[in-house]
Amino acid sequence: MITRLRALATQWTVLVPVLAIVLLGCTWGRDLPGFLVAVVSLVLAGSVLAAVHHAEVVAHRVGEPFGSLVLAVAVTIIEVALIVTLMADGGPKSSTLARDTVFAAVMITCNGIVGVSLLAASLRHRVAIFQSEGTGGALATVATLATLCLVLPTFTTSRIGPEFSTSQLIFSAVSAIVLYGLFVATQTVRHRDYFLPISRQGVVIDADDHAEAPTNRTALFSLGLLGLALIGVVGLAKGVSKTIEHGVEAAGMPQAVVGVIIALLVLLPETIAALRAARRDRVQTSLNLALGSAMASIGLTVPAVAIASFWLSGPLVLGLGATHMVLLALTLVVSTLTVVPGRATPLQGGVHLVILAAYVELAVTP
């Protein structure tokens, strides 16, 4: 019996997506009592972890930098699904949810994941090393996307408030897709070697030596389970969305905290993956994950919510406030100074983490 339980425990990444689908079928369209909300939340968190695990299996099969791209896109699909689900149920009060979640993702990836990765790698290997050419291009794309989609709406005059007009929203959505597509082509085809990890001697590492790549059959199996996990995440999130919003309101915190919770939930497993890579002295992989996720979060989420806004009730507010624009500007300046040398010490990691702490503090107490 104990042996069977241990075997089941090792297969949790297979069992949890299936359990999520079963639980989704039992709870769909029903008001959930407190204890059931707790159960759903646990399975939801497990589904996120399982989804990222299977994305990592597929990523390992296809190799870098395709692996980081697969993981970033999978995480962003989860994020988009959660945002649209909560916006559909939230009405006008959820008009800023997409902006808050995307900005939270940018701050968590560019400061949290980058900071933790640099700190872990530099503490273990004295100095964290990476390629400034590829990382710099990724950072430039993130900066452009963030400015076009999150800063400019605050200053446009076609509509009252931090909103785009219809034509402006279409332009920003198309621009986001074009820029993201151009980056993916650069990362995976034309300049793939710029996004590969490098050794201490500056030699590009074009093979993953920490484990044998999974077979095609295993990768396809993980791809199917990844789909189940994503469906479970979307459906279960809809079931607990009202509880999340009511909990934030009861605690007296701003609505923006809902976006922070979503981003933290979705990006925590990816943070663990980046940390693992950093401890193995593969900081470039960690930065690919961090900046790739920030880029995908804006480049895929904004077009998705732009399309959804045509059938969702209420306005779509994308423009950041003054405080968040200051934090974004500080993040981009510090990130540029971090990336240019291609090397980092614990100081740079600590600086990024302090900026993230400031963002969380100001999100809770604006």
From TrEMBL:
InterPro entries: Alkaline_pH_Ca-Antiporter, NaCa_Exmemb. It is found in: Membrane. One of its GO terms (molecular function) is sodium:proton antiporter activity. Pfam families: Na_Ca_ex. Keywords: Membrane, Transmembrane, Transmembrane helix. Residues 36-188, 222-362 form the Sodium/calcium exchanger membrane region domain. The keyword Transmembrane helix applies. The chain crosses the membrane at residues 12-30, 36-54, 66-87, 102-123, 135-155, 167-185, 219-237, 257-275, 287-312, 318-340. GO terms for cellular component: plasma membrane. The keyword Ion transport does not apply. It is a multi-pass membrane protein. This is Ionic transporter y4hA. It comes from Streptomyces tabacisoli.
